[in-house]
Amino acid sequence: QVQLVESGGGLVQPGDSLRLSCTASGRTFYQHSMAWFRQAPGKEREFVASIVWMGGMYFYADSVKGRFTISRDNAKNTVSLQMDNLKPEDTALYYCARAAAPLTTNNDNTTDAYDVWGQGTQVTVSS
C-alpha cells in the first residue's frame, strides 16, 4: 500500500521561504502525477500545485504562481514544494497527494482526482 509522508512545515515570518517534501513508498511513484493541496481552518481543501508523472509540466494555483515551485525526483520517490515570499494567507495544513490515474498529463485540480494523501504538514506565516 502506498503511503505519503510530508515534512518541512513550520512557523515563519512574511517574506520568508520554506521547502516542503513528500516521500512516497511503493514502486509506482514515477507513474503518477503528484500534487500539493492546502486547507486553512474553516475553509475547503484547495489545490496548490501539481507536476506530471515524468516531470516537465507544472500547474499552479493563481494565488501561488511565481512564488511556489513544485519539483520531483522519481529516483528518490520524492516531490517537493519550494515556497518563497510567503504571506499570512499561505497559512494552512499542506497535503501531498497522488493522482489516481497513472501516466496522465491532465491538470485535474479537484480532490477527487487524487487517491492517496499524506497526513499533512502545518505551515504558519505570521509576524
Which key terms come to mind for this protein?
11 strands, 127 residues, mainly beta, 7-stranded mixed beta sheet
In short:
The chain is mainly beta and 127 residues long.
Characterise this structure:
The protein is mainly β. It has strands at 4-7, 10-12, 18-24, 32-39, 46-51, 58-60, 68-73, 78-83, 92-102, 114-117, 121-125. Strands 2, 4, 5, 6, 9, 10 and 11 form a seven-stranded mixed sheet that branches.
- Please report the total strand number as a whole number: 11
Relative strand content:
over 45%
Report helical residue fraction: under 10%
Low-confidence segments, given as residue ranges, are none
The description of the largest β-sheet is: 7 strands, mixed
Structural class: mainly beta
| H and E string | EEEEEEEEEEE
Layout of helices and strands, plus pairs?
Elements: E1 4-7, E2 10-12, E3 18-24, E4 32-39, E5 46-51, E6 58-60, E7 68-73, E8 78-83, E9 92-102, E10 114-117, E11 121-125
Parallel strand pairs: 2-11
Antiparallel strand pairs: 1-3, 3-8, 4-5, 4-9, 5-6, 7-8, 9-10, 9-11
